[in-house]
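User: I'm new to structure prediction. If I give you an amino acid sequence, what do you actually give back? Let's try with this one:
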Amino acid sequence: MKAVVDIGGTKLFSAISNGYDVLEITSYRTPKRLSEFMEIFEKINDLSKFSETLNIAIPGRADPNGLITFLPNVNLKNFNIIVPFKGHFKNIHVNNDVFCGALNLIFKENERNSILVNWGSGIGGAIIIDGKIYTGNGNAGEIGHISFGKKDFENYLGGLFIKKNYGYTGFELHRMAENGDKDALEKFNKIGTKFGYFLRSLIYMIDPDSIYLFGSFINSWKFMEESVNRVLETYKRNVKINIIKDKYYVLKGCYFLDDYLKKF
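Assistant: Good question. You get back a string of structure tokens that encode the predicted 3D arrangement of the chain. For your 264 residues, that looks like this:
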């Protein structure tokens, strides 16, 4: 078992995991202030009684020493995420959240060429090529920032921007659509169409065997699937779209982070 942490744009999870199950799960609302983060980190240190290893997923980027260099939706930029846990855990590793999620595909699904997309507060991705996660110079996979019109796809489709663009939060739209609200269903049709263009761009660039989608916004997939597929039909080669509905998917992938870093 290993201690694992998933810091998201709205929620933060900590647990211990064997890669398939997660235990001792604790959920927090992602704080706004550093002092609140430090209180949570101190509680996470209690997991050291289960494991000497702590693997951390963040919705951004950190350098090899744990200094966060890119974190657009969480107030921890330029903070060294490893420091609060030193002296408690012997082995501490940190990487991008979708990178960690993609480790499920490599270690459990044996995927060789695929894309994992996390659609929640923002849009993140991990690109698997020949069984390895492509990182470029360290920042590859920030697929939500692909330009679309005058903005990028995340500014149109990220959960933090949905209310600004469509008048309701994603959760509100989902609830309305469940009740058959025509306006909500039409808005999901428009969202799905844009997301279809986004996926089609990825397919043209990477030519993957399959695409995996997860994140809070995927809970509304049934309202968008038809409009997404309508766009994807214009791409002639069939690319399988797989839906993952597991809020602990990143936590489970975190288990494999130190193993992957040793291997590659």
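You can read the tokens as a compact description of the fold. Here is one thing that stands out. The longest helix spans residues 182-206.
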